[in-house]
């Protein structure tokens, strides 16, 4: 199994090098996060490019990210949305948020990203109260136990047809265990079942292997009725 995981990581490295090449800004963001003691939980380079490609394909200009960490995925999103775009990203930990802000400034993206600190369950209602434009794209990558809550807020805050991506839903395959007591597995199952129940315009879930091990993500398009306030 160790050799298999090494192969997954090698393939990830190859794909990232062929399609993206070396990116000093992103490398610096990860190095800075490590020096500041943040966990190595950022998306892989390949997934970062995948998120950016989805943003380009959907022509998203107003993005919500739930779970900032060091801002690695945020850099991908902010770059893809372009100079006229905006990313609002929510981070529970103030230290993580400070590291993310520093990374975004060094990436030249500080003017198009707003990092909000606090529990997302508390900051999301504030965003709704501000009556901002509805989001075109939502990336959910925070605590898995609250995934359903975050999806519910995505439906309230995103426009019909917006893309919603939920990360880490496969949990090394444990998502198939209906009797799991792991809160993250239970949260992932609840989120997937909820997505199925809302009858989105389109939806899919894929398992992945790579440098981050065996996991996967779900994505769907916000339907007309679910996005109405």
Structure notes:
The structure is a single chain. The chain has helices at 2-19, 24-35, 45-58, 72-81, 94-106, 120-129, 147-157, 183-197; strands at residues 62-66, 86-91, 113-117, 135-140, 158-167, 203-210, 213-221. It is an alpha/beta fold. The protein has a single domain (2-221), classed as Vaccinia Virus protein VP39 (Rossmann fold, 3-Layer(aba) Sandwich). A seven-stranded mixed sheet has the order 3-2-1-4-5-7-6, sandwiched between helices. Strand 2, helix 5 (94-106) and strand 3 form a beta-alpha-beta unit. It is globular and about 45 Å long. The termini are far apart.
Offer a concise description of the structure.
By secondary structure, the chain is an alpha/beta fold. Helix content is 45%, strand content 21%.
Mean pLDDT over all positions: 94
Instruction: State the CATH superfamily name.
Output: Vaccinia Virus protein VP39
Count of individual domains = 1
Count of beta strands: 7
Sheet-strand content, in percent, reads: 15-25%
Q: Write down the CATH class.
A: Alpha Beta
- Please give the alpha-carbon distance between the first and last residues: 48 Å
CATH topology: Rossmann fold
Q: Assign a percent range to the helix content.
A: 40-55%
Rg on CA atoms, Å? 17 Å
Strand order of the largest sheet: 3-2-1-4-5-7-6
Series of secondary-structure elements, N-terminal to C-terminal: HHHEHEHEHEHEHEE
Look at the helices and sheets and give the structural class: alpha/beta
Q: Which regions have little confidence, pLDDT < 50, spanning 5+ residues?
A: none
Q: Tell the overall outline.
A: globular
Under the CATH scheme, which architecture would be assigned? 3-Layer(aba) Sandwich
């Amino acid at each position: 199994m160790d050799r298999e995981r090494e192969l997954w990581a090698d393939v990830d490295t190859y794909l990232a090098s062929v399609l993206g090449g070396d990116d000093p800004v992103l490398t610096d963001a990860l190095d800075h996060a490590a020096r500041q003691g943040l966990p190595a939980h950022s998306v892989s380079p390949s997934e970062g490019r995948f998120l950016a490609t989805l943003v380009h394909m959907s022509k998203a200009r107003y993005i919500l990210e739930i779970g900032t960490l060091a801002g690695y995925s945020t850099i991908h999103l902010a770059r893809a949305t372009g100079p006229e775009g905006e990313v609002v990203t929510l981070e529970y930990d103030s230290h993580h948020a400070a590291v993310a802000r520093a990374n975004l400034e060094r990436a030249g993206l500080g003017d198009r990203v707003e990092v909000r600190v606090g529990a997302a369950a508390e900051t999301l209602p504030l965003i709704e109260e501000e009556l901002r434009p509805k989001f075109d794209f939502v990336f959910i990558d925070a605590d898995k136990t609250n995934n359903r809550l975050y999806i519910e807020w995505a439906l309230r805050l995103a426009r019909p047809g917006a893309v919603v991506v939920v990360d880490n839903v496969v949990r090394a395959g444990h998502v198939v265990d209906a009797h799991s007591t792991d809160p993250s597995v239970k949260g992932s199952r609840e989120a997937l079942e909820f997505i199925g129940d809302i009858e989105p315009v389109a939806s899919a879930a894929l398992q992945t292997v790579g440098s981050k091990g065996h996991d996967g993500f779900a994505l769907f398009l916000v339907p007309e009725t679910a996005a109405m306030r």
